[in-house]
Every structure is written in C-alpha cells, then in structure tokens.
Predict the structure.
Amino acid sequence: MTESPQRNRPDNPTSLSGGDDGRQSQLTKRGGGAPASRGRTTIADGVVEKIAGMAARDVGGVHAMGSGMSRTFGAVRDRVPGGGKSVTRGVKAEVGESQAALDLEIVVEYGVAIADVAGDVRENVVAAVERMTGLEVVEVNIAVSDVKLPDEEDDDEDTGSRVQ
C-alpha cells in the first residue's frame, strides 16, 4: 500500500487557492470571537462537592467525612445494593457564577495536629476545585466533628454478616 500526497490542501492554510473555496475565510468572519468564549458553562454544586470530598480524603490524618449521624446513615446506605459510597458525605458547596464556598465536616485520626490537618485539607481542596473548575474558592470552612481513637471500632468498615 502506498501513500498518496494530499493534493487539495494548500501549503499555506490562509491561502484561498488550491481548492479551499474560501471556507477558511468565512469561518473566521462568522463567529465573533474565539470558540471558547461562545456560550456559558455552569457547574453544579454536586460536582464541586465531589471534587472537594475526594481532595479532602486524600489528606493524611483525615479518617472520615461527615458527622456521626451522617456516617451511620451512610454506612447503612453503603450496604444497600446500588447505594454505593457517598463521596459528598460531609461536604456542602455553594457555587456562584465565578466563585465557590465550601463547608466540610471531618473526623481526624487520634494523634495528628488538627490545625495542620485542617490547613492541609483546605489547601488540597482549594487547589483541586480551582484547577478542575476554574472557580475561585473564597472560603473553606472545616468542622472537626470527631477524633478516631485507635481502639474504636470503625463505623464504615464492613464487620461481616452473622449469617452465611
């Protein structure tokens, strides 16, 4: 099989000779600006909540997200077929046209410096949300609702069924 050169393409893309029929010229005149600036993009609160939830969980020292009650309901929902794990548990976002504000509720591991973990969570969440959405994050409020002690049983772990 031999390759044949493309004969209808001019060497100069702005040239109107060589079978271009003037289409290049018409496309640039019609639009009225760059294609990226045509139209509007909206980002749902849930999208920002998922991004923030994933970014917060990536920080060392964060054991879980959400209050005790939301974690309990989440553990039940996780066991229901089709329920799945909720990435947005413990995250609430308020999204405007160009800015976002976030409230996070976390559980930290015993022995970590809470102020350091909160600072790391804040930095990671701001970086992830701003990078992925282009929104300016104006605030990230963090509420530490619990400390996971080493000898405490984990609410989120599957302890196994009593019936086999």
Q: What stands out?
A: The longest strand covers residues 136-148. Residues 15 and 22 are 9 Å apart (CA to CA). Confidence is low (pLDDT under 50) at residues 4-10. The two ends are 63 Å apart (CA to CA).
